[in-house]
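Question: does this match?
>
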Amino acid sequence: MALKVKAVEKNVKFSKNDPGVWRYVMSPEMYSNLSPSKVIKEAALRSGVSRGVMQACWDAAGEVIKAWATEGHSVALPGLGSMRFGLRAKSVEKVEDVKTSLIKTRRIIFTPTVDLKDELKNTAIQITCIDRNGNEVKRVTSADAGDIEDPEGENQNGEGTENGGSTDTGNGGSTNQGGSDNTGGGDDNGGNGGDGGDDI
């Protein structure tokens, strides 16, 4: 088993009028979107229960997770980790300035189990390099340390300062998926690609 990644040469711009620079931007290759029915069918086969029973259990678990998460709980996802809701909001100095308009986004935060992180750490990564003309120019098999990002980040108290004076509430860490609009720079798949801060 291996994760497939494409490194595509793209023109990366740092501002609207910037001519940009050519860089190889890496992004995971998705095989397909598995439908819920296929997942249910496979889970039923592996567990030995009927598909109908598995569907009922799956639906019930989903309702429980939604209900408890919206009440502020961190809900366990057996075998996978836990999830909770959080938000990103701007910080203010005075209490009279605190209002709901400071909230930028609401978030879903997933924290994987140690087993799931170990599975990812031990999975090889195969990189296919594609130049600006669409030609394959190189293939690489990963030799990285397999470090896994901590979704809790460095902020165990539930806050993480963003660019522009924002805070991240809900024990959320910071990741930067970027790369979707070829804006920004750095090594995180194309850079910031947004209005500042961290993209989850």
Remarks:
- Confidence is low (pLDDT under 50) at residues 154-167, 171-200.
- Helices lie at 36-47, 51-69, 114-121.
- Residues 121 and 161 are 28 Å apart (CA to CA).
